[in-house]
Amino acid sequence: MKTNRNFNNLVPNYLFAEIAKRTNKFLKENPDKSVIKLGIGDVTLPLAPIVVEAMKKGADDLSKKETFKGYPDYEGYEFLRQAISDYYKSFGVDVKTDEVFVSDGAKSDCGNIGDIFSEDNTVLVTDPVYPVYVDSNIMAGRKIVYAASTQENGFAAMPDENVKADIIYLCSPNNPTGSAYTYDQLKKWVDYATKNDAVILYDAAYEAFITEDLPRSIYAVEGAKSCAIEFCSLSKTAGFTGTRCGYTIIPKELERDGENLHALWYRRQATKFNGVSWPVQCAAAAVFSEEGQKQIKENIAYYQENAKIISSALDELGIYYTGGKNSPYIWLKCPNNMGSWEFFDFLLNEANVVGTPGEGFGQNGEGYFRLTSFGDRDNTIEAVRRIKELLKK
Ligand code: MLT
């Protein structure tokens, strides 16, 4: 037998596993230190009360014969898909109930979507990039090309007419750089994809953090329904990183190579996925209720305040950064021209603060560093105090 040798082309550890490894080593060697983790973008606030109530009621339903549920629909229960469709309507975007697939999160779907595409396709990612897009395509043996996101272009890579790509991953607001595309910029990508018969895989996991007048969905852009698939998640929007629920939108009209992509994904999901549990889908639907939206927005505001606390410190220190405004991530230039892993070690050893080295997100991330605003308030304030003390020296 043979294993999948494409795995040999991956970096040895998944980025956040490598960070956890280094952090745990430090903690083992320095058990008296209190380390503050602003590395992986994991939420710290509990689920909103209305969400917990809905989940409890859902669990209760499973305890009675009359309301018990077995396998859910592959594409998710209609009431949740309707709630998602209504949510899109609330910001002026038309997504039909039968275009929605409920899933266990955007990470899985972004990785698994490759099942419906040939291995011969060329994949374009922006660099720096969320590692899942790269690693899942390396595993499949696809060729990957990189579009540079740099300080010069405001970390918003744009299409190059001379590059031919078939699959394009875009993430806006961006993980890791926190930059968000404007309508006109997204229109250029939609036009490029249409012209090249390509498909855009649009990760909107951070759309709820947008504060400015920017598109919350690729479908806000004219022409996107015939060239784009969108992934979204309740992880960051509503604290579901552990609970697991997301959704993928595939317009019915999206066709490539004579095939309907919605039909291919349905076939894939029916084969390899048995859906999201009843209590979790009940909880997810509560997120989209009027009261649910009010409650989750309070949590988002808490994280946005954390982002302001971090950004203000960087302003004081005169450090260049992007993000924080339409995104929970702050992407900063490492001080004193340090490399990003060098700065990671420096910050861990000297301030006992963990962040994410930009290089872990790709070549253009070298020299940059990501901090998350998903921490607890007191920890964020303390981390910022330590960083200021260290860097003012
Ligand atoms: C991150 O820190 O980039 C995210 O937590 C990763 C993810 O959402 O999987």
Written overview of the protein:
This protein is of the alpha/beta class. It has two domains: 9-47 and 292-391, Aspartate Aminotransferase, domain 1, CATH 3.90.1150; 49-290, Aspartate Aminotransferase, domain 2 (3-Layer(aba) Sandwich). 39% of the residues lie in helices and 15% in strands. The strands form four sheets. It has a seven-stranded mixed β-sheet with strand order 2-8-7-6-5-3-4, with helices on both faces. It starts with 14 loop residues before the first helix and ends with a helix. The mean pLDDT is 97. It binds D-malate. Residues 40-42, 107, 175, 235 line the site of D-malate (MLT).
Assign the structural class, choosing from mainly alpha, mainly beta, alpha/beta, alpha+beta, or little secondary structure: alpha/beta
Strand content: 15-25%
Write down the Rg: 21 Å
- SSE topology string: HEHHEHEHEEHEEHEEEHHHEEHEEEH
N- to C-terminal separation? Answer: 58 Å
Q: Report the helical percentage.
A: 25-40%
Spatial order of strands in the largest sheet = 2-8-7-6-5-3-4
- Backbone shape: globular
E-strand count: 15
CATH architecture of the largest domain: 3-Layer(aba) Sandwich
Identify low-pLDDT runs.
Answer: none
Bound molecules: D-malate
Main pleated sheet = 7 strands, mixed
How many helices does DSSP assign?
12
The CATH superfamily label of the largest domain reads Type I PLP-dependent aspartate aminotransferase-like (Major domain)
Q: How many separate structural domains?
A: 2
- Quaternary state reads single chain
